[in-house]
Amino acid sequence: MKSILIVSYRFPPMLTAESIQTGRCAKYLDKQGWNVSVLTASKYLTIGKKDDSLVDIIPKSIKINRSLSIESKIYKFYSKRLQPFALTAVPDDKHVWSMTSIRLGKKLLKKNSFNVICSRSSPPRSHIVALELAKHSGIPWVACFSDPWSNCPLAKDMGPKFRNAQIELEKLVVKQATFLVFTTKNVMDMVLEQHIEDNGKSLLNKSFVIPNSFDPELIICQKKNLKNKTNNKVKIIHAGNFYGARQPTYFLKAWSSLLASAPSLKNEVEITFVGDIDANVKKLISSLNLRDTVKFTGIVPYFESLSYLAEADALLIIDAPLELPSPFLPSKLVEYMAFRKPIFALTPKKGITADVLSKYGGCVSSPNDVKEISINFKKFIIMLSNQDNFQINFDDFINEYRADIVNKKLSDILDKIIKYSN
Fold it and tell me: How far, CA to CA in Å, does 171 sit from each of 84, 102, 333, 417?
């Protein structure tokens, strides 16, 4: 039986997109006949919300190995203070985890006959651990990138010295990995452009694009358990946390402007944010007098968030404004489309999300243009009165992003690695 070691800091019960995608990858590789072991972080010594129900969807046959990770707010503070002085030693707050994972990983390599190692980021520390394990064992290794690394457009606080250190670490990974996998061609181009002069076509020849996926089994389950609507308002849902430059500020101002010109919408539309919202955003909702039309749930368990999506009339995406074309294809968009609901997206018009929505159907506005958002959102609400107004190619999308299909592509690449290494 083929055996794989997946190295990923993020794994259930961590309540993050990367954790969910990694768990999904492990689940469907297991379904496709792989003997799956996972090397990840300890359950409750990490920062961030946890959702124990996520562990329930991981097959019992998958062996989960957790190594110590003690990052806390205090450790994060000190790791940032140390970065200018120990760039390669402390590139992030996952340093302790990387050391304990390398130690545990070597023990796992000694006890098991793995055919291949697969690392997933973010965070990039997963790749550093896999790099050390691959060098130690000689086992072929595929590095999977969900986001850009050293030149990530959202990492504006990365100083030049720290960025240079990250570039060097990234160079080691892309050079040493047997194969490279990226969620979009845009992410692939951003990562490889840093190193293509050193390695030429060899990097392109070992690089593949495999997108994020949705789990069809979970979508079917949610649709079976739909509740009846409690009122006649159009329910528009945004699922996911806000952080950094990705905030709902422009949307809320646009919605306030729209209500001022069309006050009847106050009784017709209800917008719910499912996930974490900054206190300043809550203050903005109050100051704009939007409490009657804008609700927020706070962080909820993953399956509860899927219930909100299933019961929605339409779904909302809000991305960060970017000067460069956006390389990101959020896993949230993939799950949105699986529910076959109309989508209104605030996203850079040059970027992968806008391209996908243009291809399959959806409404796009610039994320920082209040007037444009207000005009387009009004049109979107009018269109919602008749679902036939939306020509969305759901079937084509679903066939491209189903977890069983997506991870079959990954399984084929892993088979190719094993074939080449024998």
Answer: 20, 20, 30, 21
DSSP 229: P
Would you place residue 230 in the very low, low, confident or very high pLDDT band (cuts 50, 70, 90)?
Answer: low
Instruction: Count the neighbouring beta carbons within 10 Å of the beta carbon of residue 358.
Output: 11
DSSP for 105-166 reads: HHHHHHHS--SEEEEEESSTHHHHHHHHHHHHH---EEEEESS-STT-TT-TT--HHHHHHH
Residue 171: CB atoms within 10 A of its CB come to 15
Q: Which residues have CB under 8 Å from 205's CB, separation 6+? A: none
Give the predicted TM-score (pTM) of the model. Answer: 0.90
Residue 270 pairs with which residues in a beta bridge? 235
Q: Is the Cβ–Cβ distance between 118 and 141 less than 8 Å?
A: yes
Based on the number of CB atoms within 10 Å of its own CB, is 278 exposed (0-12), middle (13-18) or buried (19 or more)? middle
Dig out the tokens for 38 from the structure: 């996972």
Query: What would you report as the CA-atom Rg of the chain, rounded to the nearest whole angstrom?
Result: 22
d(CA 66, CA 58): 15
* Per-residue pLDDT tens digits for 79-97: 555 444 333 444 467 878 8
Which residue carries 């998958």 as its tokens? 62
Exposed e or buried b per residue across 115-129, where buried means at least 16 C-beta atoms within 10 angstroms of its C-beta: bbbbbbbbbbbbbbb
Start-to-end CA distance of the chain, whole Å, equals: 15
In sign, the C-alpha dihedral spanning 146, 149, 153, 159 is positive
Specify which residues 363 forms β-bridges with: 344
Q: Average pLDDT of the chain?
A: 87
In angstroms, the CA 290 to CA 288 distance is 6
pLDDT digits (tens, 9 = 90+) for 388-400: 666 677 788 888 8
pLDDT of residue 88: 40
pLDDT band at 352 (very low <50, low <70, confident <90, very high): confident
Spatial distance between the Cα atoms of 227 and 32, rounded to a whole number of angstroms? 34
Beta carbons within 8 Å of 229's beta carbon, 6+ residues apart:
235, 311
Q: In whole angstroms, what is the distance from residue 358 CA to residue 143 CA?
A: 30
